[in-house]
Amino acid sequence: MNLTVNGKPATIAEETPVSLNYLLEALKVEQREYVTVELNGDIMDRGDFEGTTVKDGDSIEFLYFMGGGR
Amino acid sequence: MLEIPREILDAVIAQAQEGFPLEVCGLMGGTASRVTSRYPMTNTDASNEHFMMDPKEQFAAVKAMRAAGEEMLVIYHSHPESPARPSQEDIRLALTPNVCHLIVSLVNREEPVAKAFRISAGNVEPVEIVTAKAI
């Protein structure tokens, strides 16, 4: 299926919808527990990553958590 | 080396001063090692000791950078009461690849100190900051 990932075209082999977790794994995103995901403009709750499906034509943005402390 | 226009660095320091005693944070965009834009972010922790950026603002800033042909070059935050060096938490949470981390210390509020670092896999390397006039 064809997707847009962080503003760039991306293709994964699967033709049928996959979970967000599966997609992040397919994209070889490291330290996924620290990633925030926006799917078609909506920020996803981490607890919904497994239950959220990604389908052909979707747009996904992901960023790493940005924080720290003294 | 990280080239930051004087006006942008001054604006970061002003943000840190205005936000005191809380930590402030933001992003800088640019190309190669030259910063051309600043995106102040909300510290959702609203804390004197921690910061966490608002994801919605993060996504908006990254999209704005992309539209301007920029890349994210810098993640910055202030240390209101500690030196301009990455804390253990800063190091642990430095997850975004290929960016510099700029820290403004207000230990001496009359003489703020800004330093930049590259942090990767727990390793910290200082990065020279060169200030320049805006193009």
From TrEMBL, chain A:
<dbReference type="InterPro" id="IPR003749">
    <property type="entry name" value="ThiS/MoaD-like"/>
</dbReference>
<dbReference type="InterPro" id="IPR016155">
    <property type="entry name" value="Mopterin_synth/thiamin_S_b"/>
</dbReference>
<dbReference type="InterPro" id="IPR010035">
    <property type="entry name" value="Thi_S"/>
</dbReference>
<dbReference type="Pfam" id="PF02597">
    <property type="entry name" value="ThiS"/>
</dbReference>
<dbReference type="InterPro" id="IPR012675">
    <property type="entry name" value="Beta-grasp_dom_sf"/>
</dbReference>
<protein>
    <submittedName>
        <fullName>Sulfur carrier protein ThiS</fullName>
    </submittedName>
</protein>
Automatic annotation (TrEMBL), chain B:
<keyword id="KW-0862">Zinc</keyword>
<dbReference type="InterPro" id="IPR028090">
    <property type="entry name" value="JAB_dom_prok"/>
</dbReference>
<keyword id="KW-0482">Metalloprotease</keyword>
<protein>
    <submittedName>
        <fullName>M67 family metallopeptidase</fullName>
    </submittedName>
</protein>
<keyword id="KW-0479">Metal-binding</keyword>
<keyword id="KW-0378">Hydrolase</keyword>
<keyword id="KW-0645">Protease</keyword>
<dbReference type="InterPro" id="IPR051929">
    <property type="entry name" value="VirAsm_ModProt"/>
</dbReference>
<feature type="domain" description="MPN">
    <location>
        <begin position="1"/>
        <end position="133"/>
    </location>
</feature>
<dbReference type="InterPro" id="IPR000555">
    <property type="entry name" value="JAMM/MPN+_dom"/>
</dbReference>
<dbReference type="Pfam" id="PF14464">
    <property type="entry name" value="Prok-JAB"/>
</dbReference>
<dbReference type="InterPro" id="IPR037518">
    <property type="entry name" value="MPN"/>
</dbReference>
